Amino acid sequence: MATSDAGAQAAFPIADGEEPWTQEELDDVRDELESDIARMERAIETAQAGLANLFDEGTEGAGRDPADVGSTNFERDQEMSLVQNAREMLEQAQLALRRFESGHYGYCEVCGKPIGKARLIVFPRATLCLDCKQREERR
């Protein structure tokens, strides 16, 4: 059994100068990804329920005060933005978990180099190394 754990740990890449992954670190990353997925799914459900309420409020009363209508529209836009952000984070976490399970976790999607253990511990959803992420953000 220890051999398979050591083999699994070796399959996860590290950047130059980093120590190999420990089983505890891998378990922590998996747990955090699974927790992120569950948290984002709950956040989406909650935000969608709030959004449904805002849409219902927007249809009540033809003679509504324009300030109330504007406020409701602003709240609706905010909720829609939150839902979209939560969906994007959910997709990132799901992709990272799929990569984790398939053995592709820790490799940059663009250049194929190791993302770096330290970066993944801080941001487990990362799919790009720092160099590629910085290039993406400059565009």
Any descriptors?
mainly alpha; 139 residues
Could you describe the 3D structure shown?
- The protein has 139 residues and is mainly alpha-helical.
- The protein is 71% helix and 0% strand.
- It has 5 helices and no strands.
- Helix 2 runs antiparallel to helix 3.
- Mean pLDDT is 84; it is low at 1-5.
Characterize this entry briefly.
The chain has helices at 2-11, 23-58, 66-102, 117-122, 130-138. By secondary structure, the protein is an all-alpha fold.
Helix content: over 70%
State the separation between the terminal residues, measured CA to CA.
46 Å
- What characteristic shape results from the CA principal axes? elongated
- The amount of beta strand, in percent, is under 5%
Assembly type of the chains comes to single chain
Radius of gyration: 21 Å
Count of helical regions = 5
How is this fold's topology laid out?
Layout: H1 2-11, H2 23-58, H3 66-102, H4 117-122, H5 130-138
Helix pairs in contact: 2-3
